[in-house]
Amino acid sequence: MISSLSGTVLSAGLDHVVVEVGGVGLLVHTTPAAASSTRAGAQLRLATSLVVREDSLTLFGFDTAAERDLFELVQTVSGVGPRLALAMLAVHAPDPLRTAIAGNDVTALTKVPGIGKKGAERIVLELKDKVGAPAGSPGGVPSAAPVLSTDQDQVVEALVGLGWNAKQAGDAVASVTAETDGLDVAETLRAALRRLGR
């Protein structure tokens, strides 16, 4: 699995960028907002998801690991593939998308091309309890995604690799960093593991 990449942008289209990594140009599909925010020659770092099919290897890129995790989560719903998941993130930013799913907002979901009323209802039914609370939602645990640094993203990825879901890992890291300032990656990981009960 290619979970992230960084390199020089060779070209940017409407919904993709070509990034040179180690002398190889990788085509990465992104949201139009992410593609339009970069230019040829710029340095770019993306959280990525590699979709493996019998006849293709397709790389999708995102500004944050949390955005990538949401992209992967919505694909667990029957009938939602990577193109539709990317369209969902093109129409709605991660927090509004989480709010729409958690709040049973079928109308907001049907604004995405390719999602009808029944599809939106299925997404809500299957993901309502899995998406987590958006940042700043009352009574919910704040989403850690907007405030995580690159080091904190590494700790979240390590915790996910150890078996916790992205929400649990993000919440633990956000909680640790809110209470303690200036920890390095290893110290943050140890503190998050203690918080998660191991």
From TrEMBL:
Domain Helix-hairpin-helix DNA-binding motif class residues, every copy: 72-91, 107-126
Annotated segments matching region Domain III: 148-198
Keyword presence, DNA-binding: yes
GO MF, one annotated term: hydrolase activity
Pfam families on file: HHH_5 (PF14520), RuvA_C (PF07499), RuvA_N (PF01330)
CDD domains for the chain: UBA_RuvA_C (cd14332)
Compartment(s) where it occurs, according to its Swiss-Prot or TrEMBL record: Cytoplasm
Transmembrane segments: none
Predominant place of localization: cytoplasm
Domain of life: Bacteria
DNA damage found in the keyword field: yes
SMART domains assigned: HhH1
The entry's keywords: Cytoplasm, DNA damage, DNA recombination, DNA repair, DNA-binding, Hydrolase
InterPro entries xrefs: DNA_helicase_Holl-junc_RuvA_I (IPR013849), Hlx-hairpin-Hlx_DNA-bd_motif (IPR003583), NA-bd_OB-fold (IPR012340), RuvA (IPR000085), RuvA_2-like (IPR010994), RuvA_C (IPR011114), RuvA_C_sf (IPR036267)
Record family assignment: Belongs to the RuvA family.
Annotated function: The RuvA-RuvB-RuvC complex processes Holliday junction (HJ) DNA during genetic recombination and DNA repair, while the RuvA-RuvB complex plays an important role in the rescue of blocked DNA replication forks via replication fork reversal (RFR). RuvA specifically binds to HJ cruciform DNA, conferring on it an open structure. The RuvB hexamer acts as an ATP-dependent pump, pulling dsDNA into and through the RuvAB complex. HJ branch migration allows RuvC to scan DNA until it finds its consensus sequence, where it cleaves and resolves the cruciform DNA.
Subunit-level organization: Homotetramer. Forms an RuvA(8)-RuvB(12)-Holliday junction (HJ) complex. HJ DNA is sandwiched between 2 RuvA tetramers; dsDNA enters through RuvA and exits via RuvB. An RuvB hexamer assembles on each DNA strand where it exits the tetramer. Each RuvB hexamer is contacted by two RuvA subunits (via domain III) on 2 adjacent RuvB subunits; this complex drives branch migration. In the full resolvosome a probable DNA-RuvA(4)-RuvB(12)-RuvC(2) complex forms which resolves the HJ.
HAMAP family, A to Z: DNA_HJ_migration_RuvA
Comment block on domains: Has three domains with a flexible linker between the domains II and III and assumes an 'L' shape. Domain III is highly mobile and contacts RuvB.
Protein name (record): Holliday junction branch migration complex subunit RuvA
Lineage: Bacteria, Bacillati, Actinomycetota, Actinomycetes, Micrococcales
